[in-house]
Design goal:
By secondary structure, the protein is an alpha+beta fold. It has two helices and four strands, in the order E-H-E-E-H-E. The longest helix has 14 residues, at about 10-20. It is elongated and about 35 Å long. The two termini are about 20 Å apart.
Length: about 80
């Protein structure tokens, strides 16, 4: 399946929206902030981007990571 191509800004917005609205995250985890999405060469999983840091994510890393993994399967960034 081909991945949808998007921009760093749009991908960050979509991930943030999903994190903020996730029913799997509650309490302080609703305050998780995606700091940045950055491009890299395509890796062995076929992804060309990563989220390198999250703010307010202590104790929420597992669920936030699962959301990011879901997006890594569906989206790639425009090649540079």
């Amino acid at each position: 399946m081909a991945k949808e191509i998007t921009t760093e800004e749009e991908l960050k917005r979509m991930i943030q929206e999903k994190v903020s609205s996730s029913e799997d995250l509650d309490g302080d985890c609703k305050e998780v902030i995606v700091n940045s999405v950055s491009w890299h060469e395509t890796d062995e999983m076929g992804s060309n981007w990563d989220v390198h840091s999250l703010r307010n994510a202590t104790g929420c890393e597992g669920v936030a990571g699962a959301i990011i993994a879901e997006f890594k399967q569906k989206y790639n960034l425009k090649d540079r």
